[in-house]
């Protein structure tokens, strides 16, 4: 948290009218929800990047003699699981996996969805009608079912889980992008640039695109949280990460038998998931407050 | 109104057609030979050929698709490879369990969510408001299966208040009447005066319903609150106040009736998501519904069952959305009377 | 002179905003007698609505707060009585109609049942009787085919019709004493405006209630008011019988108001004063003096220091201005 704040504070100050980014940052900083979310995400990001340095143990190493050690015992801060692996280290490495899943699947979803939405909104016509029809049908499938079926077909693995989650998120980005492109397309400045002879590509990617980033980034932030939850669900069903990967959902799944004996094995990976997702939800809510012009007086 | 309903139903047809098509091709085009996947690596050639013929896999894809379509419109989804029973029959057997659970969860989520949202909006920025909205935010950030496990750990294992799974005490050897156990239990109570089936069904339903309902509850509470806040600032609320209508009535009748319009939509969406999310909760609570069934079908690569399950769940999802839209028009006179 | 029906004495209302404390009402006093029409006039933003809402304590709190003064209705201070007592008065003895007929009726209930609700709140009527009474009210406010309109929803009615329904709603009590009409015609077409005003006058006669009519239109004042209170930036600057004010406007602001009317067509178009130079002061930074000082042609040194005490010019004509004794009374 502290790092990200000070890094941005050292931006060279721009004389005169503050740039849109500086203005955005100033109002974001006043938003408690966004700042809490950003703080949580920053902590998780640091843990993810420096997991090898921070984790006290190898997440895969099994010390059978120390099986199911409760937290704060024998130097295990969060205890050990049924195979004698250190919970804290596994959760720290799990952070890596969840962050990567979140970012990769949202990248897939938002890039494909954004591109489709951009083309459909900009060119309209038959292409628009066909793609929107397909999007509607995809939306007729419940999200989690779509993900499960795609993974089941591609084969159970972490990479396929990311692809599946990315694909299931395509419709929402396509819709949001199309909506904002339709709104921007007729705006004065686009019409002006067009009359000055700007090409379609230029208009789409250098004129219209920057103005669609606000709603897209809100959705992407919330999407990362949802992707983390989906990946946990897939792993829980045995369709995502495979043992012995320290993935949070998988850790919860393999703890099922210990509801009677070892609460920490059951609870802790879920708490980690909850806090990470909460971070993205808080940031997403905050971003929406700051970026949504309807909410600004 | 009648014409509105008709138009919406007609609009449904292409969507459902798309759902069937997507379900068909997703499985037909998935990597690997379905027959081999289903029978395993060591299956004999003869057995493989037999299955291929049975599934029509030896015919051109387009022909398979045409055949599938023609059967689906007659509600025939083929035969489950695993059980050998008609997929339609299996689904019909299991659906009441899923619907009962989803309905119970939704009733719990809607009622609690709306009350919480209204109270939070009435006392904006109070302790209750802050606490319930923080809880709601945590609620939407939780993995549902984890919540279910934690609840089993606390309420079943720890406090021994509820059973850990199933729908009815197995020692009762209960034969379902409608498949909705709560209803069945009630019927038995009326017929024989014995409440034990009803009580047992209820007892088994509480924990899964609460677990499944928590996330929708959180979402409904958040939407209700923001919708109420908007409505409470409207001119007609000022009119009601200036007419001396009691506060309680203003909140729960004058304002809530308006604030519910967006909430109804959210409840519908959540109900649809709940049915599909059943695959997770049913697996944990050993709830013999369509979610658990579909999970096993996917595991076993039982293609006809998976296709049938997907189509039925998606169709119900779409139908619920339609129902919600229509309900929205019914409670909103501005649309109803157009 | 008998005791007034409503008497507002030195009312003060603040709003806390993120820009600072807005002292919206800074000591407003006026009185309304039984059966009379008092017009409260002044530019938009001068505090007319806040004053009106304060009477039945409908100021949104927070951000608003009534910080001082008395509001005596039939001798009882409405600012002191408990909330339930006040609620009994709202809609039965004191009722309000608002500027926006389009948004002031609940969109999801038929208009008939909205009127019935108010009747059932304030009386022990049976449902059938309330229904009959609601119908007769719709008839009273001259809504055509009331039987059919009874089940209509607000969105099915025109603006003028909705304002009639609002009036019916305001009359839904066994014995209305005061009706507060906050710019009831501002949002309506000119022809409809005249009809609604005529209806209000007519009803006032019939029922014998008093009317507090808020407006920024001096033309309306001349037509319907018995007495006038002129407001400027949170203060009443002149109060009196309507013909005295029109004949002998004594505050420089009132004079400006009248000079810009009715011959000046700019007023009707922009609804803003053109004749007085300068602009309305910022209610956050404005000091203790006369709020009109920065625009006043007769400004003196003491004007910016403290607000003047009222000067009584005639039996029913008061003005709050230092410059008054220098001006010859015409
Ligand atoms: N809810 C509120 N929050 C903050 N300030 C308010 C609020 N309501 C009114 N005010 C302030 O009170 C002043 C008077 O408003 P109002 O009574 O509505 O004027 P008008 O004479 O046009 O009816 C305004 O200048 C405004 O700044
Ligand atoms: Mg006003």
Task: Record the SSE blueprint.
The complex is a heterotrimer of chains A (297), B (338) and C (330).
Chain A: H1 2-9, H2 20-29, H3 32-49, H4 51-54, H5 87-123, H6 125-140, H7 143-154, H8 158-185, H9 188-195, H10 200-236, H11 248-254, H12 263-291
Chain B: H1 2-28, H2 34-39, H3 45-55, H4 61-72, H5 87-122, H6 127-140, H7 144-158, H8 181-192, H9 196-232, H10 235-242, H11 247-284, H12 290-299, H13 303-331, H14 333-336
Chain C: E1 6-17, E2 20-32, E3 37-41, H1 48-55, E4 64-73, E5 76-77, H2 83-89, E6 94-97, H3 111-122, H4 127-140, H5 146-149, H6 159-170, E7 178-182, H7 190-207, E8 210-215, H8 218-224, E9 227-232, E10 235-241, H9 242-247, H10 252-259, H11 265-270, E11 311-314, E12 317-319
Helix pairs in contact in C: 3-4, 4-6, 6-7
Bound molecules: adenosine-5'-diphosphate (ADP) and magnesium ion.
Adenosine-5'-diphosphate binds at residues 15, 17, 22, 24, 42, 44-50, 60, 63-64, 283 of chain C.
3D architecture notes:
- The complex is a heterotrimer of chains A (297), B (338) and C (330).
- By secondary structure, chain A is mostly helical.
- Chain A has a single domain (33-295), classed as MetI-like (MetI-like fold), CATH 1.10.3720.
- Chain A has helices spanning 2-9, 20-29, 32-49, 51-54, 87-123, 125-140, 143-154, 158-185, 188-195, 200-236, 248-254, 263-291.
- In chain A, helix 7 crosses helix 8.
- By secondary structure, chain B is mostly helical.
- Chain B has two domains: 19-73, no CATH class; 95-337, MetI-like fold (Orthogonal Bundle).
- Chain B has helices at residues 2-28, 34-39, 45-55, 61-72, 87-122, 127-140, 144-158, 181-192, 196-232, 235-242, 247-284, 290-299, 303-331, 333-336.
- The model of chain B has no long low-confidence stretch (mean pLDDT 85).
- Chain C contains eleven helices and twelve strands.
- The longest helix of chain C is centred in the middle third of the chain and has 18 residues, at 190-207.
- Chain C has 330 residues and is of the alpha/beta class.
- In chain C, helix 3 (111-122) crosses helix 4, helix 4 (127-140) crosses helix 6 and helix 6 (159-170) runs parallel beside helix 7.
- Chain C has two domains: 6-93 and 175-319, P-loop containing nucleotide triphosphate hydrolases (Rossmann fold, 3-Layer(aba) Sandwich), CATH 3.40.50.300; 103-174, no CATH class.
- The two termini of chain C are 25 Å apart.
- Chain C is globular and about 65 Å long.
- At the A-B interface, helix 6, helix 7, helix 10, helix 11 and helix 12 of A face helix 1, helix 6, helix 7, helix 11 and helix 12 of B.
- Residues 15, 17, 22, 24, 42, 44-50, 60, 63-64, 283 of chain C line the site of adenosine-5'-diphosphate.
